[in-house]
Amino acid sequence: MMADKKAGLKSQEYFINMGPQHPSTHGVLRLLLSLDGEIVKKVEPHLGYIHRSIEKMCEFDSYGQIVHLTDRMDYLASHINNEAVCLAVENALEIEVNERIKTIRTIIAELQRLSSHQLWWGVMGMDLGAITTFLYGFRDREMITDIFEETCGARLTMNYNMPGGLMFDIHPDFQKKVKAFLKHFKKKLPEYDQLLSDNVIFRERTVGVGKLSKEDAISYGVTGPTGRASGFSNDVRKQEAYSAYNKVNFKEILYTEGDCFARYKARIDEMWESMHIIEQLIDNIPEGLYREKMRKVIKLPKGEYYQRVETPRGELGVYIISEGGMSPYRLKFRSPGFSNLSALDHMARGSKIADLVAIMSTIDLVIPDIDR
Amino acid sequence: MVFNIYDFTGLTEWIHEGLSRSLSPGLTLVVEWALIGAGLLTLVALLGLVLIYLERKVSAVIQQRMGPMRVGPWGMTQTVADVLKLLLKEPLMTRNADKFLFNLAPFIVMTASFLALGALPFALGLHIMDLNIGILYITAITSLGVIGILLGGWASNNKFSLIGAIRSGAQIISYELSVSLAILSIVVLTGSLQISEIINTQQNGWWLFKGHIPALIAFVIFLIAGIAELNRGPFDLPEAESELTAGFHTEYSGFKFAFFFLAEFINMFILAGVGAILFLGGWLPLHFGIDNSFNHVMDFIPPIFWFFGKIFALILLMMWFKWTFPRLRIDQLLKLEWKYLLPLNLLNILLMAFIAMQGWYF
Prior knowledge:
By secondary structure, chain A is an alpha+beta fold. In chain A, 49% of the residues lie in helices and 13% in strands. Chain A has helices spanning 2-6, 54-58, 63-70, 78-93, 99-127, 132-152, 174-197, 200-206, 214-220, 224-228, 236-239, 260-282, 336-342, 344-348, 353-363, 367-370; strands at residues 14-18, 30-36, 39-46, 161-162, 165-166, 303-311, 314-322, 330-334. In chain A, the strands form three sheets. Chain A has a three-stranded antiparallel β-sheet. Chain A has a three-stranded antiparallel β-sheet with strand order 6-7-8. A two-stranded antiparallel ribbon of chain A has the order 4-5. In chain A, helix 3 (63-70) runs antiparallel to helix 4, helix 6 (132-152) runs antiparallel to helix 7 and helix 12 runs parallel beside helix 15 (353-363). Chain B has helices spanning 9-22, 25-62, 78-88, 99-117, 134-142, 145-155, 159-190, 195-200, 207-210, 212-229, 241-244, 254-279, 293-300, 303-324, 330-358. At the A-B interface, helix 5, helix 6, helix 8 and helix 15 of A face helix 7, helix 11 and helix 15 of B.
């Protein structure tokens, strides 16, 4: 301080608004950064720019309608969001859907996880300045969205699930297309490593950056690949197997480093695991109805119901309080992004602005999921 | 008219004589300046069009897409359309921005590029000025550009711009050292700062081949540091799209933005030009051995094509870097320069001086 005064210089922390319009917040997230030169002193996320009061709207909708609203939360995992509500409703009604529905749901969910991770990979590279990855990610994602389009007519907000089953049966070409995709992507995924994972600059930018210890991950409720990269075993697919996950054999990816590179690797490895899961299911989709016989009007018995599923970003919880009517008394989503975002300040403190961007992209934020 | 594509001396002398026969010496000079100015402007405009189109297509090839395809055949006139759009755009300015400096900044950047372009020899007898300290002049002039960037970032009254400007100041001033030292290691061999002299010393082989390993090291360092000085990826921290939105030119729009944009491409051309002059023999053709048919074929290709060919080869290399590498962080960037490149460079110069002293180069 004395030296500063002598030279007549005054240094002070300053604030910068990163967002709501910013290329690397991936949506309308506003981060109020407190900076000392290039060093991040504090990150304060401000939400509310894309709030659509989905939870409140749910209180006036029937359970069939609620499913459609969940598409608009985590738009990169719309099928898994749908599934969460459907499973909650089915559990409350004590309906067990048949194996065909379960298997198809699982395959689509894993395809969705792949497509979400592909997009994340592209965007991650772009955030670090390697724009080419974005196009590569999108190239491979296109095949999955084409499969979705053929299956249910939509590419992003799918609405394929409904309480009691699926909207339509799978397309006759479904299995062929999925196998073609797997064959294609098995060749392309090593390319991802060649282009980004093994790049010296990329390693420099991610290894040891934005560390999150296991204890912190648990106390912040950080789930999904972000939490698993810190050694926090939290895969809902393993712990509370829903749909067809109890029939398949897969590894839960765990890393202990908790830095950006571990989070990156966790997602890359998850892509391999997802492909492994699909491979086990795709050839033995059982015969059966694609939709169970349900009553037209769904009324849940009075009570509280909770269902959690594993989205590409972590654990999504659906908490329904029913008074016995056609719509819930209260519906609460536990979105993975919200809890993961809460750890951002902890991870980013003391690092550079460039690190903040890297950390943000390894958390894999989807803003409409955080800000419902 | 004595036009000869292998030697432009006759052409320039013919113009000079023709002008001085009908005009007074002072007026002759003015007309010649005007001609040179017009020539440079045309070159810059053409380069802008070609390089931007090239960047788009190269990035498209790397990214497995088509690039611009709609405007004109294969999207060739896309850049013209973009320039028109930029011309018609409203020049916006932030509140409380320093108007004078804000408007001045792009011109400083552009002027620096133009001045440096004046010292490049495009072919035998086709250079604007052949100073006896030519290469020193280019290094001095190109470092003026950073003033424009700093001013632009400072005057924008935007914190993102300011961070970008400060980053670019730190970056360009640091990497200037490495560029200059890499240039110096070739000057050690040539013993001259004059560009025509440097090219002439390479008549029997390019310095990249003649100078042994030190020349190769100097070339690599020159490329790395040069790209960093250009603010191009992977060293595009001052712009850092994903961090600082657009860095120092966040607040610029319309033609002032186009100036920054164009200056970047012109600087890339200048850097590739200097690289070609120092390491790849400028406009000299590629020769292997003495007096064989391969050399005669190479001699048949006019020098101007050689020079532009080498420049575009280097530019393509730079584009390849930009579209495949992620960006460095500011501390890593400075660490690379001060801890690795600079000591290596100093050692390299010592080695080069030793080689030059012993006369071990060919």
